[in-house]
Each structure stands twice: as structure tokens, then as C-alpha cells.
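Lab meeting, item 3. Inverse folding demo.
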């Protein structure tokens, strides 16, 4: 690998805080024409400066909070998400705060929680068919997905996520859907 390329990879890895830029150089050693060869890989870009910078970045990551999240939402979404939080607390679900949004989690074993709702400002609401739902033999995941979609509010967004945006027009129906989701989670939680 040319020295210039090695320096570029190291520079990018040191400068990019949330992304690792690495290269792999593979050297081939051969004893003679009749013998087997050995391939020896070497990772380029793992400098101490890059490791320290990424380690510092990971430990200084900040998480949002309920007030910060609500302040990032429009007034209609604030009203909806306040109700989401109140009902979640009332039912004993855990609210996990991320760097931007939140997830609602249900206790699925002594030391493990599973997600079922995600929210992101200013108005995103997702129902998440987490691993704990797929692994529960008592749940027909396809039937649950169809029942949720039959409300006509959420749309599919990948294999596990159903999503929508909170609007003035759908907030009342979305409140009904959220109540239904909580009822279903209560029924199927381990």
C-alpha cells in the first residue's frame, strides 16, 4: 500500500469522530514456486490518536431528556407525547432516552428489556416489532402487524418498524392506537 494512501486513511480515521476509516493491507509470502503461500493481513489507520479521540467522543455523548425532547416537538406532538409518557409510566414501562429520541421498553426477563415504541422530534412515532415479540411463540407477529396496520395510521418502514407522523388530523386516532398497542403489549409481555 502506498505511503500516501496510508497517511490519508490515518488522517481520516483521526478526524472523523463517529466513523472509522480503516484499510487492510494483505501481504503474500511465498517460500518457492512449489510451496504454499501465506497471506498476512495488517490493518491501517488504527493510530493511538484516533483511538483516544473516539474513546473520548463515546464517553462524552449526551442523551436527551423529557423536557428537551418535548421542546423539540411541535405543539400537537407535545400533547401526544406527554400522554405517551404519562401512560407508559402509569403502566410501568421504562422510558429509555437516546441522543435524540426515546424508546418505550417492557421487562421481558429478570435483567432484559424489549422495545416496542420509538419517538423522535418533531413528530415521529414508531411501533417496533422487537426481537422479544418475534421470539415469543404465543404471538402471531404477522397478525399483530396486520391489526396495527388496520388502524390506517402507520405505514411499514422495514421488516420490524411501523411508522407515522403526529398531526392535528390524526392525533385522536393515534391516541386510540397507542392505547391499543399498550393493551397488546400488556397481554403478550412475558
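The presenter then showed the designed sequence:
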Amino acid at each position: 500500500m502506498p505511503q500516501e494512501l496510508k497517511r490519508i486513511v490515518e488522517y481520516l480515521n483521526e478526524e472523523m469522530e463517529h466513523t472509522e476509516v480503516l484499510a487492510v493491507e494483505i501481504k503474500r509470502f511465498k517460500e518457492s514456486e512449489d510451496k504454499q503461500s501465506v497471506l498476512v493481513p495488517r490493518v491501517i489507520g488504527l493510530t493511538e490518536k484516533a483511538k483516544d479521540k473516539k474513546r473520548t467522543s463515546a464517553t462524552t455523548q449526551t442523551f436527551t431528556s423529557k423536557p428537551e425532547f418535548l421542546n423539540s416537538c411541535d405543539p400537537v406532538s407535545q400533547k401526544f407525547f406527554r400522554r405517551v409518557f404519562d401512560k407508559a409510566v402509569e403502566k410501568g414501562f421504562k422510558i429509555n432516552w437516546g441522543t435524540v429520541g426515546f424508546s418505550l421498553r417492557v421487562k421481558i426477563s429478570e435483567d432484559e428489556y424489549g422495545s416496542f415504541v420509538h419517538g423522535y422530534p418533531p413528530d415521529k412515532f414508531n411501533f417496533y416489532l422487537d426481537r422479544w415479540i418475534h421470539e415469543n411463540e404465543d404471538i402471531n407477529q404477522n397478525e399483530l402487524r396486520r391489526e396495527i396496520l388496520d388502524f390506517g395510521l402507520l405505514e411499514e418502514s422495514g421488516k420490524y418498524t411501523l411508522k407515522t407522523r403526529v398531526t392535528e388530523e390524526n392525533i385522536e386516532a393515534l391516541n386510540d392506537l397507542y392505547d391499543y398497542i399498550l393493551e397488546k403489549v400488556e397481554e403478550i409481555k412475558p
